[in-house]
Amino acid sequence: MPSKHVPVRQCVACRTRRPKRELLRIVLGEAGPIIDPTGRRPGRGAYVCPDNPDCWSEKKLRRFAGAKAAELSQALRMLLEGLLPKPS
User: DSSP labels for 35-68?
Assistant: First the structure.
């Protein structure tokens, strides 16, 4: 029996290819970037690694969000820093 197809997407920041479900989708809306955990919002979307803080930096997000990268970087940090386990 053939294995089920798993969609693969690329992180806009680090360019790592991973299964779609492991990445967080961001959509560029009229009001700016919107974090889309469902993956169903309309609009141009991009994916970011939710477990790699290096991918949330403003400089790396400029490729996708342009001038709104600082706003997106701040929103990602606020949302995702609480979800990562603290190093011991």
Answer: EESSS--SSEEEEE-TT-GGGG-HHHHHHHHGGG
Q: Which helix (H) or strand (E) holds 69?
A: helix 69-80
| Cα–Cα distance for residue pair 20/68, rounded to 1 Å | 24
CB burial readout 24-49, b (16+ within 10 A) else e: bbbbbeeeebbbbeeeeeeeebbbbb
- Tell me, what's the pLDDT at 77? 87
- Contact present, 70 and 56 (Cβ < 8 Å): no
pLDDT, tens digit (0-9, with 9 covering 90-100), for 20-76: 999 999 998 888 788 898 889 998 889 999 999 999 999 999 988 888 889 889 888
Separation of alpha carbons 87 and 13, rounded Å = 23
